[in-house]
Design a protein that fits this description.
Elements: E1 2-6, E2 13-18, E3 27-34, E4 41-48, E5 56-58, E6 70-77, E7 87-96, E8 99-109, E9 115-125
Parallel strand pairs: 1-9
Antiparallel strand pairs: 2-5, 2-7, 3-4, 3-6, 6-9, 7-8
Amino acid sequence: MKEVYFKPDGGALRAKAIFPHSSIAPVNYEIILREAGSNNTISLLQGDNLNPEDDVANLPFTPDLLNGRRVILDATYVGLNPALHNGYRIRLEIWQDNACLGFVEETGELTGKGQYTIMFIRLVAR
């Protein structure tokens, strides 16, 4: 699990899902916030990759309350034509004060069947 460091006295945190090859692999996803030391979760955003400008979720707490929480991206997708375009890339970024603090990324090969990706970022106050 990737750790991303943030300023507890900084601005609000945002999680952004990025699907660069959206024209070759339709994606349905959910961004989830999980409490530190718990399995309790909050669904922050459910969507698809058709409109990249709305693939951003504002984290609902002030930064000082986010230490140790995990941001999860849960995505399902299928390649439209893997014989022609067989690669994919999915990225989850954490932003604060108009700066990308860190990200986790996955790349792979499309199979033509339904596929699944789950990514985790642990938020750490610095």
